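ok so for the tutorial part 2 we go from a plain amino acid sequence to predicted structure tokens. step 1 is just haveing the sequence, like this:
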Amino acid sequence: MDGPPRSFRIDIGELVLDGFDSRVDPARVTAAFEAELTRLVRERGVPLAADGTGVALDGLAGLPPLPATTSAVRLGEALARAVHAGLAGRGDAR
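step 2 — the prediction. this is what the tokens look like for a chain of 94 residues:
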């Protein structure tokens, strides 16, 4: 056994989404985003922080595209997967 599971702290200061339909509920996007990112971190960890030193990123670019949808849940989950991809080293730190 490798010991107790690691504790991760992910602080996302601000997510700005422009150009989305006004029918998309920001609170539902946020809830779906948080739930999906929590699941991904629990299941897959945060590869950029695997050595325990921690990582601070000011921004990420080159992430997977988000779906064209008015579903807040689908958008939040896709956004979480894109952010996790960036934390896994897929994407460009800015």
